[in-house]
Batch of 2 targets.
Target 1
Amino acid sequence: MKPGERILGVEGGGTKTAWVLVETLTGADVPGCEFRVIDQGKLPPSNFRLTTSERLRLILAELPKQIDVAGVFLAGCATEEDRRLLEQMCLEVWPNAKIVTGSDRDSGLAAALDHGDGIVVNAGSGSSVTGRRGDRIERAGGWGHILGDAGGGYFLSIQALRLILREHDLHQSEMQFTAKILHALSLNNFDELVRWVQTADKMDIAMLAPVVFEAATEGDARMMEIIEEGARVLCEYTEAVASRLHLLAPKVVLMGGLFYRDSLYTHTFRRRLKKNLPDARVATAARAPELGAAWLATEAGDHAAFHPKPSQSEIDILAAALTEQRNPRSENLEKMSAQELVEVFVEEEKLVQDALRNATAALVGAIQIVTGSLRNGGRLFYVGAGSSGRIGVLDASEIPPTFGAPPDLVQGVIAGGVTALYRSAEGAEDEESAGALALDERRIKGRDVVIGITASGRTPFVLGALARAKSLGAKTILLACNPDCSHRHVAGPTDSPQGRSYSDLDLLITLAVGPELLTGSTRLKAGTATKVALNIISTGAMIALGKVRGNLMIDLHATSTKLRDRAVRVLAELAQCDYESARNLLEANDWDLRAALEKL
């Protein structure tokens, strides 16, 4: 960073959004030493998961505008997609600034440990434990208030509220602590408290933590038990992180409102930790996490570091992809009438049929590979990103009701997970390691088969998944809409620079549908061709496995009125009996169509 640059550090959580505006100075590379604080302040809470996008934008808009760099680190900003979305929001406020985004865990680690090793225990409205040794990071807790955040303000408060309800249910009495809660919330009676709890959000409940500490300080043994339990869990997480990092005498830094505000919690935690980690060096953080956010922004350097520029060869390959070319028949798309638009769309669909016809041999091969794997006890996985991933998930989801197959027999894997099914998560496709990890999570075996779906033939998430599947001995198929992809390489299992040739795949299916009417929008012809191809492969495999009689489904799940009616008609057709007789037979067999047929 250049001397005199203005850096904004922002750390947001469930209690507040703290910010600091600093100016860089020459000197040591330690937070607080290389900065001169110009201004600082606090704004309302900004948990990335719990605060709406509209609310986040309003909060960001209140921050200083004249800056060169912004480091914005929010609770709940955990994934690459989260960071990308947060970066986009920040660029709306600071279009000319370099933006660095991340989780409050990151800024807390920077503020507490600088470049050093140790463990940071953060207890605010939520909680988390993060440790570092060299380049290795280990984490525990921090899963949010529904799944965890044990030892945070929400945890302590909800335990206290549950205790109140339990005492009422068991003894029809109100604890002395109940009066403190009613007073803090300006409520009049127990019923009002129950109604308040039923509609309160995480932050409303977490803000009752000071009442819990006050009661414990005044001698309430039950509240002290809750505090002891919170400290015990945080110590347990700290010990686990220390063990995984092999830190025998770790530096343990305490951060967050519960430790800053209530010395009782600090003493309780320190006392418990010393039992199992007697050599731990426990201290409260001397620097605020927003300074850590500013420091991380300077450490990150160029904004481009977060979006590495592809090499010229990669740029050339992408630009040459058929799916990225302009379609000469739609160059005046915005000037077309509705009639002309429909006609050109319909005319283009002929190319889908041509592409599928030209891929006949490959589709036959795919059916044979998939059938062989499934017969051998394997599973079929579709792996894709964006539109390709959604198409794969769609086809996979239709197999159980159509063919009576178990849900895990055919699975769709999409970059970005379930959120990407209904909200764009295109940035999730850029990591090969994420694709490999997604298959590791599903415990791929040698008898499984993985079909990677990528219109361009280059999506890193898909190629990483295929490479990992191949390394584990699974059958691998790539379905692409770019004829030139056969000349490219897919990364090998060791992620070597030279990679692995597409010839290492068991099968390559190319659907050359040509340029899209809307340039690059592969949800159009490429999406249609992909959907039909997957229909062919999965249906062909299910037929080969005996799931069909003639052109009738004999393993369908009769789980609705429509499907029960279909099952009756199928049985009546195959058994050459009337509708009522078929229905009676199905009812006698618990609507198991195959079982009814076998009895005939």
Target 2
Amino acid sequence: MNKEIFEGAIFDLDGVITKTAKLHFQAWKSMFDGYLKLVEERGGAKFKEFTHEQDYLPYVDGKPRYEGVKSFLSSRQIELPFGEISDLPDKETVCGLGNKKNMEFVQYLQAGKTEVYPSTINFVKRLKEKGLRIGVASSSKNCSDILSYAKISDLFETVVDGKVSAKLGLKGKPAGDIFLKAARNMNIEPSRSIVVEDATSGVAAGRNGGFGLVIGIARKNNTKDLLKAGADIVVSDMQDLDGMDIEKFLFKRPSYLFDFWDKSPDKVLTEKGELKSPSDKVFFNPLFFKNAKTFFSKKKKTVFFLDYDGTLTPIVDKPSMAALSPEMKETLRALNEKFQVAIVSGRAREDVENLVDIKKLLYAGNHGFDIKGQNLELVMPKAKKFIPLIKKITKELDSKLSSINGIIIEKKKFSAAVHYRMVNEEKLPLIRKEVDAILSRETSLRLMEGKKVFELLPEIDWDKGKALMWIMKALKISWRNHNVIYIGDDTTDENAFRILRTRGAGILVSSTSKASFADFFVNSIDEVKKLFETVISAAE
């Protein structure tokens, strides 16, 4: 692994680091079979045993304990009261059954049956030798005890387990909460982190969290399921990655969209960054090899998420001058007649809404903090409290930097942006000094760097990718039934590209092919318009 790309890796526990998945299944089976027999004795449904393939994998694997109990019981049309976490193992509640399973699992551990996967431990050690920080994120409340039993606790810098999740109210998989918490604990960005998982819910959690690379381990003959859930690559064991340069696979140079409209990219790794598999034991997500036209299949409804500056309009010296051309506006209006369209911009929502001026569109401003349209409305609750602080620092930046020729301090509700496109380069250190001074004082803010702009935002786990997922959920847009397309040109759009990778299509607008999480690139705004016209024509 190359530390220039990755700073850390977060591993699931059961089935990835330790061989406790088998013990978990045995404990689940013992508990559920016992309960199902009791149901039959009372005159209920005829006993049907709890199995690995039909029950454990789809309803229990990777989920928090009580969610697993509830999920399986629902599959058998059995409803029980949730109960209390303190319920005794003989109490007939969701918590009671969950606690009974845990009691049996702990008995297995105490009997000395904890084993590890040597290949994973060796992989962890190799990453640590290269300077990467390593954590564990697991739904298990026994995580720390298991690491201790296995005598490998010292390998991991942070442990986020079921106990931490319960205390902090973190959502279980497929939400990315526990992986994101582990990354925050190690002070590393998700985009610079790897997630290693063996369950489909965990793979989806890594993808939903916007992590740079999601590796699936198919220990349950579930390669296709892991790829479908969003894994970038799937292996049968971590030793399959020995000697593989997966960085080039991860952060590659996207294919030129119109070169690959009707044909798939070659499965080779050239100097331009195309992919080549050195091993038939490593399975790459097939979406990387589909042609561009595939992403606009009529079998699914297509949804467009579009950045504004640099995507629909040229980058200009002054943000206020970035007007939509009449031709692009008409094309965008025609696109919206055929497909669902949302604008996701770093601009204030009211600003981009006025510039586009198409009523039926959905608008997400301030990198998704402010969303409105299509009968939806969201202002991030956590962001509201930052409005006075943003107003204060915007005024401060204006006071200290406005005398610099060419500088523009953009006043927005949820962020303060310093544009220096027209500023002499020798003034850049001074600008950076003032921005850094605010960041060191106001620790609740973070810095986002775009094209010739420094932007100070609330330190909240929210970005264009998270906004995209919120909109999808609100409008009932699914990966299964929709072609989800995101088009953008800036570093801030990479958050959305990561969310879409292996599930939709990210298209980078760039005059040259450069490293990106996007699947394809187009050369210019004119080619964005050409793409719109192509899919509009095909839809008629």
